[in-house]
Design goal:
The protein is mainly alpha-helical. It contains six helices and three strands. The radius of gyration is 20 Å and the shape is elongated.
């Protein structure tokens, strides 16, 4: 498993500790963390968010000397798990690995979003960026985007693409390509 650089890990650990230093429920002089920390991952196991969360969680748990438990809570483009984190006690023992989907895209997609990403969360750090890639199977006769568009237009039923779920950045990128072509 890849290791986090010492500077990145130190930054993440500092931000995490600062975010809970004055949290309600943390008595003055009480050692933090006094119990396991839960990190909610609002996507399924094996997703990019899950993998990154496990890397960060493992390092952070080791540094803090306390178990950090990853809890996958997928559904509704990440809003189910993010809502669970929003409703958790504000005691510093529940973190959520937010994404552009959970804290920006979902605001526009779900009119009845059960949480407010601006009012109910305090960001503690940027963990990373993940690109969206457009790839095709080698067997498909397209090597450029222009060739892919031409091929899709030549097929009455079009072409299909995969994404990590409805409302995710990969899904919206595919729909944007579809509407612009």
């Amino acid at each position: 498993m890849p290791r986090l650089s010492k500077s990145l890990f130190g930054f993440i650990a500092f931000l995490t500790l600062m975010s809970v230093a004055g949290s309600p429920g943390t008595a003055v002089g009480q050692r933090y963390p006094a119990k396991p920390i839960r990190m909610i991952v609002p996507f399924g196991p094996g997703t990019t968010t899950d993998i990154i969360s496990r890397l960060v969680g493992s390092s952070l748990g080791n540094e803090l000397g306390q178990a950090l438990i990853i809890e996958n809570r997928p559904g509704a483009g990440g809003s189910m798990g993010t809502n669970a984190a929003a409703k958790a006690a504000a005691d510093g023992y529940t973190l959520v690995m937010g994404t552009v989907g959970t804290h920006a895209i979902n605001v526009g997609l779900y009119p009845q979003l059960p949480y407010d990403p601006l009012k109910e969360f305090a960001p503690i750090g940027v963990v990373g960026y993940t690109p969206t890639l457009l790839v095709v199977p080698k067997a498909l006769p397209a090597r450029t985007v222009a060739q892919l568009i031409e091929l899709a237009r030549s097929r009455p039923d079009g072409l299909f693409y995969a994404s990590s779920g409805n409302g995710t950045s990969g899904h919206l990128a595919g729909e944007l390509l579809n509407t612009r072509t």
